[in-house]
Each structure stands twice: as structure tokens, then as C-alpha cells.
Specification:
The complex is a heterodimer of chains A (about 375) and B (about 90). With about 375 residues, chain A is α+β, with helices and mostly antiparallel strands. Chain A has 17 helices and 5 strands. In chain A, strands 1-2-5-4-3 form a 5-stranded mixed beta sheet, sandwiched between helices. The longest helix of chain A is centred in the first third of the chain and has 27 residues, at about 50-80. The model of chain A is unreliable at about 295-365 (pLDDT under 50). Chain B contains 3 helices and 3 strands. In chain B, about 40% of the residues lie in helices and about 20% in strands. The chains are: A alpha+beta (about 375), B alpha+beta (about 90).
Chain lengths: ~375, ~90
């Protein structure tokens, strides 16, 4: 495994934290970014900077989560439910060793016609849907369901994100009206322990997820770099086409450049050449700026960052690339404002934000 | 009952897993993680409640044949079981 992208990622994280004037922040940020084990193993942070007990706990949690994913994989395969695992669950074992990359849940896609069947099967394993208010948006608009097997112990509990659709990225609310494209299903690799998408498709799904998580899923960037390593020049066109299918064509091109140039993954020329002429990438996204942006966000806020902090941070940090991204990312529909997000104070903020988003106009191409 | 005839049984729910170069026992009730060496992990795997301490020593002897004397093995098993008991990992 070539860990150059991970080293470059660390260096950018180091520079980003240096901006804060507090180098001691780096280990904390690496935990937040989700790679404490990997960074320790690569020697980027000194052994002991992250507590051994924490690392050991992460390794065990990771190991147990993989076992949960394998159990789900066996169940879905035995029931002939077309599916594929993405993100950490897809890369566990083939790219990352236990504890390298923090995993918080198991992400699995099924074809829409099998969503109910998959949910029933997960329930037989002891997973139960989370409460309605903890799900992403109103039930009728959802394209994913979070289920949890909770025995009261965070080490052994597991959450599964069961996806059957892809949410448009220009909407803050899910709509469940777009499935993964056929090209993804036609090429799922079913040879390993878990079904996984073909690398350029997986890369596009990761890009979509990055957009959807408001750029805060930073470990997705390194995931993307590691998946891109598995691609050759011939896959570049497939990557761009799938990004376009998922509505993240322009952002996909931008992130591809970041991965190729900042993280030094090969085949850069092929990727640039394969970028559709209709997709213009006017400004380059810089990893270091991105990490600085995330470093200043409060992780406890998580989803609420979407509607308030991002807007404030964008202005405060004056990062050149991000405002233009923001207008691609947020375009809340009317239903968004009708959803009970937690009281009038939030609704007022959202309304203000929605007005701002409308001013920022253009959609992703 | 002599120690040799005792049949140690792992407490239900305690998890044994390898993590790279070490093994860990996780106690979900206390939410505590205990690192153990390979021999102790092997001993733990035999704490089924069916095998006597003597059986466990014999099982280890088959693995570590010619490497450790029977006396040393017996001492290792006694020490490991005492550690499991002290940490509340046995039923």
C-alpha cells in the first residue's frame, strides 16, 4: 500500500493546525479527522500523543464493526439482495487495518426495490430503526434509514445506514427520488467478503457523500485518495460520468484535482483530460484550507453546522474556494423550512440561510 | 475441589479479539479492555466451563510442545486464571 496520500494529508493537517498557533492541537484533530491509528502507525504523530487505551479501544471497535458488516453481508447475500458497502466498511481490510480509520457506522446501499426487504433482514439481526427525529428528514422524503443494535455499550453497539437512494446535493432535505445509477450496480465487485463498488464508482459515491456532509467528512478525502489509487487512467472518464450522474460533476472534478495534486495520487493528467468540457473548475480547492476550515468547526455541532456555522466560517476564514462551493451545496426547498428542526429559533436561522442560499443561485452541472 | 479439577468458565459477553500484535479481552459490563498475551488468550479460549485446569494445561502442552516444561505451563495457566478471576472475567 502506498501511503503517500496519507503522509501528504498529515502534512496539510500539520500546516492547518500551525495556523492556530497550537501544534498540540494536531493529535486532537487527527482523532477528529478519524485517522489516529494510521497517523500513529506512519509515525506522523509520536506514539503516546494519542492515548494507547484510546487507540486500542478504536481498534477493537473497528474490529467489531467489521464483524457486524460481515454478518450483514452474509445475510444480504444469502437473501439475494443486491447491495454494496461503501466508505469505511468497503475499505476495511483491503485498505485500512483496524484502528487506522475511525468507523462510526456501516454504510450499505441496496437497490430501491429491496429497501423494505433489507430493513426486515436487518431487524432479524437485532437492528432497530432509530427514532424518527434522529433520521434524516421526514419519512416520505428519505432515501436512507439509520438502524441501531444497541446493547447499551458503545463498544459493541452498531449503527447501520441503509441507503436505497442518493439525495440530490442541491437540496438540504432528502427526497429519495434518485437511485444509484445502473452503471454502479452492473459493476459491483462481489468477490470479497463484502460487495463493493467498482473503484471509480466508489470514488464518485465518496464525493457525493463529502458534499452531502457539508465537507465535514474529512476522512472521506483520504478514503477518496486511497480508492483513486486503485484506479487507472481508463477509469477517469467513468469517475467523471458517475459524479455527473450523482449531481456532483463539478465538485467531483474539483475534489479529483485536490486528491491528485495535494495528495499526489497518480494518473493526474488522465483525470484532467477526462474532465467533461462542460465542467469548469474555476478555482482549486486547497486541502490545507479545507482542513483549517474543519479545524475551526465545533464537532459537537455537527448537523447544525450545516445551517449556521458554515455560513459564518466561510466569511470569517475568507477561504477563496469555499463560498463558490457553498452555493452548490445548499439550496433548501420549501419543505425544509416546514420540517420541525427544533424550535422557532432554528427555523428563523434557517429561513435567513435559505434566503442567502437562493441569492447564491447556480446549481451543480 | 482442587485447583486442577476446577472448570473455569468465561463470563458471558466478555469478548476476546486479536489486535495486531496483541490480544484483548473486553468486559462489556465494566466497559474495560484488558490486554493479554497469546498464551493467556489461548487459556481464555479454553475457559468453557467444560475443561478442567488440568485439561487446559494439557491443551497448551500440545501447542507449546518442547518449548516449555509442563511445570512452567501449569504455572502459566494458574497465573492467567488468577488474573482472569481478579479482573472479574470468570463466571
Amino acid at each position: 500500500m502506498d501511503w503517500t496520500p496519507a503522509r501528504r494529508f498529515c502534512e496539510a493537517a500539520g500546516r492547518a493546525t500551525a495556523r492556530t498557533g497550537s501544534p498540540a492541537l494536531l493529535p486532537e484533530l487527527l482523532v477528529r479527522y478519524g485517522f489516529p491509528g494510521l497517523m500513529t502507525r506512519l509515525g506522523f504523530i509520536e506514539r503516546g500523543a494519542v492515548d494507547d487505551g484510546v487507540l486500542r479501544g478504536l481498534k477493537l471497535h473497528d474490529t467489531l464493526l467489521r464483524e457486524h458488516a460481515d454478518e450483514i453481508a452474509r445475510l444480504l447475500r444469502d437473501a439475494d439482495v443486491p447491495h454494496c458497502f461503501v466508505k469505511g466498511s468497503a475499505l476495511a481490510g483491503t485498505v485500512y487495518q483496524p484502528g487506522d480509520r475511525l468507523q462510526t457506522d456501516v454504510d450499505v446501499y441496496v437497490q430501491p426495490a429491496y429497501a423494505d426487504r433489507a430493513q426486515d433482514l436487518l431487524i432479524t439481526l437485532g437492528y432497530l430503526p432509530l427514532a424518527d427525529r434522529e433520521q434524516a428528514g421526514p419519512a416520505a422524503l428519505r432515501s436512507a434509514l439509520a438502524l441501531e443494535r444497541d446493547d447499551g455499550d458503545p463498544m459493541t453497539a452498531a449503527t447501520v445506514e441503509l441507503h436505497w437512494g442518493v439525495d440530490p446535493v442541491d437540496r438540504l432535505l432528502p427526497r429519495g427520488d434518485r437511485a444509484l445509477p445502473d452503471r454502479v450496480w452492473d459493476a459491483v465487485d462481489a468477490h470479497g467478503a463484502r460487495n463493493v463498488p467498482y473503484p471509480p464508482h466508489h470514488a464518485a459515491i465518496l464525493v457525493h457523500h463529502l458534499v452531502h456532509s457539508d465537507l465535514l467528512h474529512v476522512r472521506g478525502v483520504l478514503d477518496l485518495a486511497m480508492v483513486t489509487q486503485q484506479m487507472d487512467a481508463a477509469d477517469a472518464a467513468e469517475y467523471h460520468a458517475t459524479c455527473a450522474d450523482l449531481g456532483v460533476g463539478r465538485f467531483g472534478a474539483r475534489v479529483a484535482r485536490l486528491v491528485l495534486e495535494d495528495l499526489e495520487v497518480g494518473a493526474a493528467e488522465a483525470f484532467v483530460a477526462a474532465t467533461p468540457s462542460a465542467v469548469r473548475v474555476p478555482r482549486r480547492l486547497v486541502l490545507e484550507d479545507w482542513l483549517a476550515f474543519v479545524a475551526t468547526a465545533d464537532p459537537a455541532d455537527d448537523a447544525r453546522i450545516t445551517v449556521s456555522r458554515i455560513r459564518r466560517r466561510l466569511g470569517a476564514l475568507a477561504l477563496p474556494a469555499l463560498p463558490s462551493l457553498a452555493r452548490d451545496l445548499f439550496w433548501p426547498p420549501a419543505a425544509f423550512l416546514e420540517w420541525r428542526w427544533g424550535g422557532p429559533r432554528w427555523r428563523a436561522r434557517l429561513r435567513h440561510y435559505a434566503q442567502l442560499a437562493r441569492k447564491l443561485a447556480p446549481r451543480d452541472g | 475441589m482442587s485447583d486442577a479439577a476446577a472448570r473455569p468458565r468465561a463470563r458471558e459477553g466478555v469478548i476476546l479479539r486479536p489486535l495486531e500484535d496483541e490480544w484483548v479481552l473486553y468486559d462489556p459490563v465494566a466497559q474495560e479492555l484488558h490486554t493479554v498475551n497469546r498464551s493467556a488468550a489461548l487459556i481464555w479460549a479454553h475457559c468453557t466451563g467444560d475443561e478442567t485446569t488440568e485439561d487446559i494445561v494439557a491443551a497448551l502442552a500440545a501447542v507449546y510442545e518442547h518449548q516449555v516444561t509442563p511445570e512452567q505451563l501449569a504455572a502459566d495457566v494458574t497465573r492467567a486464571l488468577a488474573m482472569f478471576r481478579e479482573r472479574g472475567l470468570l463466571a
